[in-house]
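COMPLEX REQUEST
Ligand: zinc ion
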Amino acid sequence: MAGDQANPTGYVALTFDDGPGSNTGTLLATLRACGARATLFNTGQHATSDRRLVAAEVREGMWIGNHSYTHPHMLTLRKGEMRDELFRTQSAIQAAGGGRPTLFRPPFGEKDETLESLAAELGMIVVMWDVDSEDWNGATTEAIVAAAEGLRNGDVMLMHDQWATTIAAIPQIVANLARRGLSPGMVDPKTGRAVAPGA
Ligand SMILES: [Zn+2]
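STATUS: Structure written out below.
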């Protein structure tokens, strides 16, 4: 039946960029309380400055993606600098116990063919989003909950690690998804679409 949480009819991917940071512990506790898993696009510099949080993300069942090392506008960089941003982040996340990411989320959603081919060389697909929470743009918790209503089966939602407004929205988002037969899943590293965990 639709809305049966044990038998979801579809999956969406909740993604949180820019961590880990001072709110990551609260984010993880909130996701745990909701029984939800998410994809966390970490920057290399943050993964390096707080390795224990990367390990905590893994322990809580999250999937970890690459979000560049210093969060630059990637398309302003030379090819070698672009590669460096990707490669150093893979190394930083691996060193922190986060595994070897297969997903890359470009800062500001800025990508081109060069960036996509560099990501592919490192075993990653470029993952964008279908629904933008606008949390980075000052969206209220209510507005973030409302944005999630636009998610359909397979869709990916952009959120960020550092906003209390976003974290406060998670319980209602997960409850509303369940009512619509949707469950938080993972991003398929082949297609960039949301699928069942472990699919
Ligand atoms: Zn970002």
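REMARKS: The mean pLDDT is 96. The chain is about 40% helix and 15% strand.
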